[in-house]
UniProtKB/TrEMBL annotation:
<dbReference type="GO" id="GO:0071555">
    <property type="term" value="P:cell wall organization"/>
</dbReference>
<keyword id="KW-0573">Peptidoglycan synthesis</keyword>
<dbReference type="GO" id="GO:0016755">
    <property type="term" value="F:aminoacyltransferase activity"/>
</dbReference>
<dbReference type="GO" id="GO:0009252">
    <property type="term" value="P:peptidoglycan biosynthetic process"/>
</dbReference>
<comment type="similarity">
    <text>Belongs to the FemABX family.</text>
</comment>
<dbReference type="InterPro" id="IPR003447">
    <property type="entry name" value="FEMABX"/>
</dbReference>
<dbReference type="InterPro" id="IPR050644">
    <property type="entry name" value="PG_Glycine_Bridge_Synth"/>
</dbReference>
<dbReference type="GO" id="GO:0008360">
    <property type="term" value="P:regulation of cell shape"/>
</dbReference>
<dbReference type="Pfam" id="PF02388">
    <property type="entry name" value="FemAB"/>
</dbReference>
<keyword id="KW-0012">Acyltransferase</keyword>
<keyword id="KW-0808">Transferase</keyword>
<keyword id="KW-0961">Cell wall biogenesis/degradation</keyword>
<protein>
    <submittedName>
        <fullName>Lipid II:glycine glycyltransferase (Peptidoglycan interpeptide bridge formation enzyme)</fullName>
    </submittedName>
</protein>
<keyword id="KW-0133">Cell shape</keyword>
<dbReference type="InterPro" id="IPR016181">
    <property type="entry name" value="Acyl_CoA_acyltransferase"/>
</dbReference>
């Protein structure tokens, strides 16, 4: 493909979308056709970029209708899936975005939001430990990164120049997908090496689960009611609003139909009693820990640690390069309850990763501003 060739964007079938995903090392599970089925309150469409008749990029576009008008916000969570390294190096981002903008505009979109799964910065484990121990450091953004990527830097500059609105800095979890996540690199490692990278508490908890007789197994759709029972108990204990059972039932049906390995349910039993459960999602070489739950009783047998270790081992055995523990916040302050989350994940020996984040382009500034105000009032 030459740089001067013209790209077009049009809808593609789910089969075309799945086939395109299979040709890449990985894309976000939020960019699979199955995720469009899961998000029933959004209208979803699979689209592709074509160079003549060759499919060169894909995206799942979700449309959220604005109240009282027949216009929508177009949203591409953790996507689209294109060769971002080549786009950034060529400096031709607008060549890819222009046909996408025209396509969603024709579908009635008043604004477009996208959040490419492009890494901008990484902080290694030792750097994070030192930052958490320093009372003068309150935010991750104030800590010099160990790695800054050329692709992330170039894309941020190009989006800014094209008039896109950057993600706002926030101290907690914002709406949309997390900009900061915690990942455990797996490439070139074996289980012994990963285990050695855990801190003493993680290793002790895994050993305790084993000595206590915790048994981890794979569940099926028939186990979803028990998973949801423990998940609802976790939500009540930890004071968050649980998703309804129908959500997980729909997610299981959609994602396992897309690909059998896409979603798995792990169950930890102790003396025949379910004490913890979790789901793992995988696309290509990227595995994500998505939902976790544990009972209030028998927490001392460390079923949750046993499940995490089993999921990491399975990800390793299947050739994954990353085990993703998903979102963390920007906070490093001990006075913030979110600091405990990063401390827990830090024990795996992994690293903090910053993505490019979600960028917005108002197509109709008036409608975009009104919708933005409406969403802020709702939250």
């Amino acid at each position: 493909m030459t740089r001067s060739s013209t790209l077009t964007v049009r809808e593609i079938t789910s089969d075309q979308h799945v086939a395109a995903i299979a040709e890449r090392p990985s894309v976000s599970f939020l960019q699979t056709p199955a995720w469009g089925v899961v998000k029933r309150d959004w209208r979803s469409r699979s689209v592709g970029w074509f160079d003549d008749d060759k499919l060169v990029g894909v995206a799942l576009v979700l449309y959220r209708k604005a109240p009282r008008i027949r216009r929508s916000l177009a949203y591409i969570p953790e996507g689209p899936s294109i060769d971002w390294d080549s786009v950034a190096a060529a400096g031709d981002l607008q060549r890819w975005l222009a046909p996408l903008i025209e396509h969603v505009k024709a579908q009635g979109a008043f604004g477009l939001r996208l959040g490419p799964m492009v890494v901008t910065r990484r902080w290694h484990n030792a750097t994070l430990k030192n930052a958490l121990a320093d009372p003068g450091i309150a935010r991750l953004r104030d800590v010099p990164a160990d790695e800054t990527t050329a692709t992330g830097t170039a894309l941020a500059e190009q989006l800014t120049a094209l008039g896109w609105r950057p993600p706002a800095a926030t101290d907690g979890f914002a709406a949309g997908q997390p900009r900061h996540v915690f990942q455990l690199p797996l490439e070139g490692r074996d289980a012994d090496d990963v285990l050695k990278g855990f801190n003493q508490l993680w290793r002790r908890n895994i050993k305790k689960a084993d000595k206590s007789g915790v048994v981890v197994s794979l569940g099926t759709a028939a186990d979803l009611p028990e998973f949801h029972r423990v998940y609802a108990e976790t939500a009540q204990r930890d004071d968050f609003t649980p998703r309804p059972y129908a959500y997980f039932e729909g997610m299981w049906a959609a994602m396992t139909a897309d690909a059998p390995e896409r979603l798995r349910l792990y169950l930890a039993h102790h003396e025949g009693e379910l004490v913890a459960a979790a789901t793992m999602t995988r696309v290509g070489t990227h595995a994500w820990y998505s939902y976790g739950a544990s009972t209030t009783t028998k927490r001392d047998v460390r079923g949750s640690n046993a499940i995490q270790w089993r999921m990491m081992q399975d990800a390793l055995a299947e050739g994954c390069s990353v085990y993703d523990l998903r979102g963390i916040t920007d906070t490093l302050s001990e006075n913030d309850p979110h600091a405990g989350l990063i401390r827990f994940k830090l024990g795996t020996g992994g690293q903090a990763v910053e993505y490019l984040g979600e960028w917005d382009l108002p197509i109709s500034r008036v409608l975009y501003s009104a919708f933005d105000l409406y969403m802020k009032r709702r939250s």
